[in-house]
Design goal:
- The chain is flat and about 65 Å long.
- It is an alpha/beta fold.
- Strand 12 (268-271), helix 9 (277-280) and strand 13 (289-290) form a beta-alpha-beta unit.
- The longest helix is centred in the last third of the chain and has 19 residues, at 292-310.
- The protein is built from ten helices and 13 strands.
- The protein has helices at residues 18-27, 47-52, 112-121, 147-150, 167-173, 195-210, 230-242, 257-261, 277-280, 292-310; strands at residues 5-9, 31-34, 57-61, 73-76, 99-103, 125-127, 158-162, 180-184, 189-192, 216-222, 246-252, 268-271, 289-290.
- It folds into three domains: 5-76, Rossmann fold (3-Layer(aba) Sandwich), CATH 3.40.50; 84-193, Diphthamide synthesis DPH1/DPH2 domain 2 (Rossmann fold, 3-Layer(aba) Sandwich); 200-306, Rossmann fold (3-Layer(aba) Sandwich).
- The protein has a five-stranded mixed sheet with strand order 6-5-7-8-9, covered by helices on one side.
- Bound molecules: iron/sulfur cluster (SF4).
- The site of iron/sulfur cluster (SF4) has 10 residues, from loops.
């Protein structure tokens, strides 16, 4: 007898395990359907899909809860045991720093105490930030929320990220100012990544300057439930219009940059969805893709130029 109809949702890195989990839950008497839509966080729960197929529950793999929703969702965190042997290579680069702040992702949060103990044994004072914003555990960072790094920035001599990839440490790097060591056990990388602060700051300035003459603005809104920000889009549209620009709100679930590139009338786009889109995906659009703050800066410069012209 059927127990329940369940929709399974996996982030991209775990989609390869979908069949195994589907069969396991089917074996327990459930009807199981797998979401094939791209997803990158628990900010993006496939509630519309679940309702469409009459599912009573979503099982979301790989992320902890991000936001409250009015639907039955079970979160299945996915822990990865990274090899600690790489830590030996971090001792020398950190030699001159007395106090270090350590951050990681939800996949390695269970390893954080051991990483901290390693550095303590090597004479460091270790600071682990409280959970901030969307993060649920001490020392945890998300791509859009590195509060536990930012909150310890003033108390440490250096910051250390332990875990996979560059996506998460980049977010933490951009909200801190101290030397930032990446320890990436899967690629075997131990290196300071501070140079990216300047690279990304120049890139941001470039986008702002390239948008100063923009006349038509596309404001991107996603229907992903934890990222949707229609109120902000309306505010930005009103601001654009009161600055004499023409603006439209463009809605999608997962943005297809090919489609957006077909919207040739627009001179610049402003992102109100996942904040990382306007940092990581700018090269995928022909026109500048700005954050809300960057757009406000564009408006400020335009205003200043107008004042200058009047004088
Ligand atoms: S970084 Fe983007 S995709 Fe990841 S949790 Fe934050 S909003 Fe969601």
């Amino acid at each position: 007898m059927m127990n329940m109809r369940i929709l399974l949702q996996f982030p991209e890195g775990l989609k390869q395990e979908a069949l195994r989990h589907a069969k396991e839950l089917e074996g327990q008497g459930n009807e199981v359907v797998v979401s094939a839509t791209p997803t990158f966080g628990a900010c993006d729960l496939a509630i519309d899909e679940a309702k469409n197929i009459g599912a009573e529950k979503i099982v979301h793999f790989g992320h902890a809860e991000f936001h409250r929703v009015d639907f039955n969702v079970e979160y299945v965190p996915y822990q990865i045991n990274a090899d600690f042997s790489i830590l030996d290579r971090a001792v020398e680069p950190l030699r001159q720093f007395k106090t270090v702040g350590i951050v990681t992702t939800i996949q390695h949060i269970h390893q954080l105490d051991k990483v901290a103990d390693f550095f303590r044994q090597h004479g460091k004072e270790v600071v682990i930030g409280k959970p901030y914003g969307f993060a649920k555990k001490p020392g945890q960072i998300l791509g859009c929320d590195a509060g536990s790094a930012a909150s310890v920035n003033g108390r440490v001599d250096a910051l250390v990220y332990f875990g996979g990839g560059m996506f998460h440490p980049l977010g933490a790097l951009l909200v801190t100012t101290k030397p930032f060591l990446l320890i990436e056990p899967f690629q075997g990388t131990v290196e300071f990544i501070d140079k990216y602060r300047e690279i990304y700051s120049k890139r941001s300035r470039g986008k702002i300057l390239a948008s100063v003459d923009a006349k038509n603005i596309g404001i991107l809104v996603t229907t992903k439930n934890g990222q949707n920000n229609m109120p902000m889009a309306r505010i930005l549209k009103a601001k654009a219009e009161s600055a004499g620009l023409s603006a439209a709100i463009l809605v999608s679930n997962t943005f297809d940059f090919g489609s957006i590139n077909n919207m040739l009338e627009f001179d610049a786009f402003v992102n109100t969805a996942c904040p990382r889109i306007s940092i990581d995906d700018t090269d995928r659009l022909r026109k500048p893709l700005l954050s809300a703050n960057e757009f406000n800066e564009v408006l400020r410069i335009k205003d200043e130029l107008k004042g200058g012209r009047k004088r």
